[in-house]
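Project channel, design review

CF: Before we commit to the Streptomyces coryli constructs, I'd like one complete example in the thread so the newer folks can see what an input/output pair looks like. Taking Cysteine dioxygenase.
RD: sounds good, go ahead.
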Amino acid sequence: MSVVLQSRTPTQLAETARRAAAETGFWRPRVRFDAAERYYARLEVTDDYEVWLLTWLPGQGTGIHDHGGSSGAFTVVQGELTERTFTAAPTRPSPWALPAGAIRAFGPRHTHEVVNHGAVPAVSVHAYSPALTSMSYYEELPGGGVVLRSTSPVDR
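CF: and here is what came back for Cysteine dioxygenase:
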């Protein structure tokens, strides 16, 4: 008999991210900043979701990516991040500022880029369901839209 795992909805993941962020003793001791690349650490994993900590020095960002079919949510707990969301249509996305306390939830086909354009380090707490197994990275086309560049397994 196989077990069917239930995925959490974006709304449920937003609450998971909010709960994890409120437990500062859970994530604050793990905060690190690395000038060479963004620091990230998986904080919790269950049968139906996982929680990650990400840190961002000024100028650091994700590149345009998706979450391999997982839904997600994140909340900014320090600093400010900027998100651009991409669709299949060849349009130029507008940046969306996410200050400390902001929360963003999304479904399994969400493609975006997150960057710290601010002058101070930023920290965010993320929740995904099901747990991340891969992420695809995209290149922005000159006329708008994106094209797939690569797909990679997620480091655990």
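RD: helpful, thanks. The first strand starts at residue 39 and ends at 45.
CF: The helical segments are 10-22, 24-27.
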